[in-house]
Amino acid sequence: MLDLNSINGMHLDAIREIGNIGAGNAATAMSKLLDCPVEIDIPKAELVSIYELDSYYDDPDSIYTAVFASSDNEDPFNFMLLVKESEVGTLVGQLVSKQFGMEMDVASMPQEMVDSALGEIGNILLGSFLNSVNGFLGITTGITTPSVTHDMLASILSIVSAMFGQYGDVALVTKSSLIVGTGENAGSLDANILLASEPNALETLLSKLGVL
């Protein structure tokens, strides 16, 4: 099994390249879903101490929404869409407006409806990212049904810390920020796509890329 402490710059560059292609596919899919331009900035890929992960993205006490999903194979790739709670309304509002052709007050929508919309967004974004990973591996895997949770960032990321804590004291994570719209309507949402895959999955991927 891959020792994450042995990950070097060449490995991280390869993972960033996968993240770049995956993010591009996700942006294209999201643009079609929202019917507006969507860009995702250049992904970062870093090794982070599991004891510092809760502050890697933002203030650990900030309230976030997370959409989780994984590939459905034996050694899964794990994905998470992190959206600051205060900006969920913007993202969901654009989706509802596109699908129903009318503006809706997201704050007045039932939580189940909001979470359903977030699940759809997560399924499109994370599924598109997974398709890029599948392309590198030359396999076809599906994505699990996304689950949605609302909590402090520290609590959400404790799940990732616990997962990597089985293998050592570092986590290999990526992050990519969303930019929705153009011109005066463009805005960088406080949203990130996180790829946090276990050592076995990473070992397979890096081997396929010829850097391991």
Tally of domains: 1
Percent range of helical residues: 40-55%
Q: In CATH, what is the class?
A: Alpha Beta
The amount of beta strand, in percent, is 15-25%
Overall 3D form: globular
In CATH terms, the superfamily is CheC-like
Number of helices: 5
Order of strands across the widest beta sheet?
Answer: 1-7-8-4-3-5
Structure write-up:
With 212 residues, the chain is of the alpha+beta class. It has a single domain (4-208), classed as Chemotaxis protein chec (3-Layer(aba) Sandwich). It is built from 5 helices and 8 strands, in the order H-E-E-E-E-H-H-E-H-E-E-E-H. It has helices spanning 9-34, 88-100, 111-137, 153-165, 199-208, and strands at residues 38-40, 44-49, 63-70, 78-84, 147-152, 170-175, 177-180, 187-195. Strands 1-7-8-4-3-5 form a 6-stranded antiparallel beta sheet. Strand 3 (63-70) and strand 4 form a beta hairpin. Helix 1 crosses helix 3 and helix 2 (88-100) crosses helix 3 (111-137). It is globular.
Would you kindly provide a brief summary of this structure?
The protein is of the alpha+beta class and 212 residues long. The chain has helices at 9-34, 88-100, 111-137, 153-165, 199-208; strands spanning 38-40, 44-49, 63-70, 78-84, 147-152, 170-175, 177-180, 187-195.
